[in-house]
């Protein structure tokens, strides 16, 4: 249970819970991002490991304990790409990622959501890419930050997740091509007059795999692999939401931290785009969602 600050309405509070837990576990467990420098937040990876393997539900045990290695964990300054930035889970993921020092690229319908996202001081992305042409969006993402992009979250579905997967795979292929070119140049008898390069990044950090979370489904990786080695270079994730409900240590630290973030104003609740009253209004609310009327915010039904 989380105590809401006075400035937050019950409607806003109702729209926060599941999305916050999903975002925090996606970043903190799947990507290993520590929130210890954000208002005393948790290092979820350490919290989960300290619980002990026997108390982690078996069906999420691999995801929670072994899906990302220590040297691959997201660190301040790393880039993350979020496809579908208008979803509530994306809106909160952007905020939490920025608070922890990540740089955020958002791929979204720019005509509908570009303005309000860019104007939001809590969720303004470092890079905004229009998704109206998905192939072009992949190329833009790959051309701008592809070489340093290791983390992606998709909030829309398998189709858009497959495009984000392509962007992450292009990063690896360019890196391999560059390595091959570098190897060939070493065999040449000709030497460049250029000054020596700056010291390389430590090997452990350069050999990180890419990591992809699909909040609404993941593509089948073998359908998109042109190179058998791609699977070894990319880890797909499903957020282990069960940890929040079945591991008290995880649920407690997330609730306590969420309350601190809300009280301090560091976390902004999603926009409420409509409120329906009573069970009889549920079908009408669902129709509005199916018709695409509710985008970039939440619809609340008060019962």
Automatic annotation (TrEMBL):
Q: Where is the composition biased (Pro residues)?
A: 192-202
Q: SUPFAM superfamilies recorded for this chain?
A: NAD(P)-binding Rossmann-fold domains
Q: Where does the record place the region Disordered? A: 169-204
Compositionally skewed regions (Low complexity) per UniProt = 177-186
Matching entries from PROSITE patterns are given as: PROKAR_LIPOPROTEIN (PS51257)
Name of the protein in its database record? Alcohol dehydrogenase superfamily, zinc-type
């Amino acid at each position: 249970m989380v105590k809401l600050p006075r400035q937050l309405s019950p409607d806003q509070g109702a729209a926060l819970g599941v999305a916050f837990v999903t975002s925090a576990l996606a970043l903190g467990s799947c990507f290993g991002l520590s929130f210890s420098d954000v208002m005393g937040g948790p290092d979820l990876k350490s919290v989960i490991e300290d619980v002990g393997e026997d108390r982690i539900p078996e069906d999420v045990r691999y995801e929670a304990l072994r899906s990302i290695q220590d040297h691959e964990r997201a660190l301040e300054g790393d880039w993350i790409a979020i496809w579908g930035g208008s979803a509530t889970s994306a809106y909160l993921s952007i905020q939490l990622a920025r608070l922890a020092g990540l740089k955020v690229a958002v791929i979204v319908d720019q005509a509908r959501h570009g303005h309000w996202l860019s104007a939001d001081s809590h969720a303004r992305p470092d890079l905004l890419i229009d998704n109206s042409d998905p192939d072009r969006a992949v190329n833009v993402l790959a051309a701008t930050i592809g070489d340093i992009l290791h983390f992606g979250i998709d909030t829309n579905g398998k189709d858009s997740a497959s495009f984000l997967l392509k962007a992450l795979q292009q990063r690896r292929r360019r890196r391999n091509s560059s390595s091959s070119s570098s190897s060939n140049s070493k065999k040449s008898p000709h030497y460049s007059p250029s000054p020596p390069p700056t010291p390389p990044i430590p090997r452990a950090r350069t050999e990180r795999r890419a990591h992809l979370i699909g909040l609404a489904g993941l593509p089948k990786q073998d359908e998109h692999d042109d190179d058998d080695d791609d699977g070894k270079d990319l880890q797909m994730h499903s957020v282990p939401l069960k940890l929040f409900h079945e591991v008290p240590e995880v649920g407690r630290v997330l609730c306590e931290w969420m309350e601190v973030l809300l009280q301090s104003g560091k976390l902004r609740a999603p926009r409420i785009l409509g409120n329906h009253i009573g069970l009889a209004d549920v079908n009408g609310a669902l129709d509005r969602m199916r018709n695409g009327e509710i985008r970039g915010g939440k619809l609340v039904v008060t019962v």
